[in-house]
Design goal:
mainly alpha, 5 helices, about 40% helix, globular
Length: about 110
């Protein structure tokens, strides 16, 4: 279900994000996001509120500017270019399904 949402949410996640390693688009590739999310939460530079990989992914979907990865070109002045309306357009259950799918991308 989460994979389906990745392709059909409004706007569709796959319009800006690939799941192929190194295939950056308007947004970074999400290949390996399950692993990177866990590493980010454990790093001293993480300033968000998440406690685990799933929480970080959820935070990134619902509050994309909560933690900006340094050096990336997907933000400006501390604000992510990712849309901020997924909390309104997706139900909590749908966000959970999307998170569950993204966590499988190791």
């Amino acid at each position: 279900l989460g994979e389906q949402l990745f392709k059909t949410a409004t706007p569709a996640c796959n319009a800006c994000h690939s799941t192929v390693p190194g295939a950056d688009m308007a947004g970074p590739s999400l290949a390996g996001i399950g692993t990177r999310a866990a590493q980010t939460v454990a790093s001293p530079g993480y300033h968000g509120k998440a406690k685990d990989a799933g929480g970080y992914i959820r935070e990134s979907i619902l509050s994309p500017s909560a933690h900006i990865v340094p050096g990336e070109m997907y933000s400006a002045d501390g604000t992510s270019f990712m849309p901020t309306g997924y909390g309104q357009s997706l139900s909590d259950e749908q966000v959970g399904q999307l998170v569950a799918f993204l966590e499988t991308l190791k």
